[in-house]
Amino acid sequence: xSLFDLTGKVAIVTGGNGGIGLGMAGGLADAGAKVVxxxxxxxxxxxxxxxxxxxxxxxxxDVTQKAQCLELVAQTVATFGRLDILINNxxxxxxxxxxxxxxxxxxxxMDTNMTSAFLCSQAAYPAMVQAGGGKIINIGSVxxxxxxxxxxxxxxxxxxxxxxxxxxxTAWAKDNIQANSVLPGWIDTELTVAARTQVPxxxxxxxxxxxxxxxxxxxxxxxxxxxLASRASDFVTGAAIPCDGGFLIRS
Length: 251
Ligand code: NDP
Hints:
Layout: E1 10-14, H1 19-30, E2 34-39, H2 42-52, E3 57-60, H3 66-80, E4 85-88, H4 103-131, E5 134-139, H5 152-172, E6 177-184, H6 190-198, H7 202-209, H8 222-229, E7 240-243
Parallel strand pairs: 1-2, 1-4, 2-3, 4-5, 5-6, 6-7
Helix pairs in contact: 1-8, 3-4, 4-5
Bound molecules: NADPH dihydro-nicotinamide-adenine-dinucleotide phosphate.
NADPH dihydro-nicotinamide-adenine-dinucleotide phosphate binds next to helix 1, helix 4 and helix 6.
């Protein structure tokens, strides 16, 4: 059996109805997993599940809401019988100067990017214990390690997700659950299209700083997702792995 084979495994990808989430979901499905895409937009979710095929389903869930996270896991287990893999990928950004954020905006970014990972991981834990182990993959960012003037809550949430990942990796190792975070670089998605087109010079500075010489595409995240979801990574836990074309190592 291939080290990377996911046949018989069941995965939830939050924010899986588009962008990076859908790119990673494609990798998991290619490796044989049954995939649940979660998000709020039903029409976008149904279209994404149809595009993915191979038995993928969309389950509507706002992952900032504890009851909906519990229901997402319950529906997944009811549909596919188990849960082995959780990718906490749902995320948003609000670009402003720190002095201009409202309290609501601060909490919305933190709840969507960080608290959702806590709520979904907590909801998934009993099902993973039941399955004899599991894989939790939390999506950070290069902003987990860097900062930018217009990203106070975003960078805070992405730094916190690395520490949250390390905490659950230490707590749940006894349950054969590995938890790791992935730090994407600049990926061409709906999240970045506005900044890419509206912030003068951003596109050029990203191209200049990225040793790979290009923006990433969602499919660039598929390989790391399969690695961290498969038995190939059974001795890898608590790590924060960049997937950024070399962006973070460039001085
Ligand atoms: P997209 O905007 O394309 O996708 C974000 C997804 O999150 C959507 O599918 C959205 O679905 C979902 N989502 C947002 N809020 C919620 C919520 N409350 N409940 C459930 N789902 C939600 O962005 P990306 O694909 O670019 O981003 C994916 C992740 O990657 C994010 O965590 C982002 O921070 C991270 N990232 C992205 C980078 C990039 O350059 N693009 C770089 C580094 C990290 P719906 O609207 O249906 O709810």
